[in-house]
Amino acid sequence: MPIRIRVVTPHVAPVPAKLREIEDLAEGGALQLSQVNIADGPRAIESPADEHRCLPGVLARIEEAEAQGLDAVVVDCFADPGVAAARERVAMPVIGPGEASLHLAATLGRRLAIVTVLESVRPMIDALAERTALGPRLAPLRVVDTAVRELDADPERLLARLTEAAARAVRDDGADAIVLGCTGFLGVSDALARALAAQGLAVPVIHPLRSAVLLAATQVRLGLRHRAARPAR
After folding, report:
1. Which domains does the chain have, with CATH numbers?
2. Is the pTM higher than 0.90?
3. pLDDT tens, 177-220?
4. How far is C-alpha 21 from the chain's CA centre?
């Protein structure tokens, strides 16, 4: 039986390329991946206000996935909106890409750098750093000043901005692992790693969504689940 993982995107804007980012992880059918957007909410997660607006829709989609018999859910946002709350509502694994990718990065480097979209997401990343207890190992946050909905508008320009930001993190801040701080950075992690290596800055580049999908599959295979605390209804 394949492991069925639902990716819940916490906004209403369709992202047809999202599954293409992770389809190679399906391992010849060992994983069955599906994706849904929330029914109502923001068009992107670019601020704490957006995060707050998406929460009811995220929780509804996660409870729906459990009712449909899915094995695990990944919330498709680096800020991990609704993950902690969902773990109180469902018994299946619920994985946040931010948490997953930062902990993976911590096994690959001592000084970790997050490269993200906009300065407005800083409060959410600060909260993530506190939740993961990895704040002391984080280099200063780097941003590419590109809105989430514009990430696919000019792939070459985006790669150039990511390369510049990541190179500064390695050269100036001593980072030895780069974490992409948005799940909307699609199809760029390998190219970014190559661009850095070409400058003599070979460091691992971690994509949060891919990390989260494989962590979800690992938890299912090992039979591990969080301690659910379902509130009385």
Report:
1. 3-96+210-222 (3.40.50.1860), 99-208 (3.40.50.12500)
2. yes
3. 999 999 999 999 999 999 999 999 999 999 999 999 999 999 99
4. 12
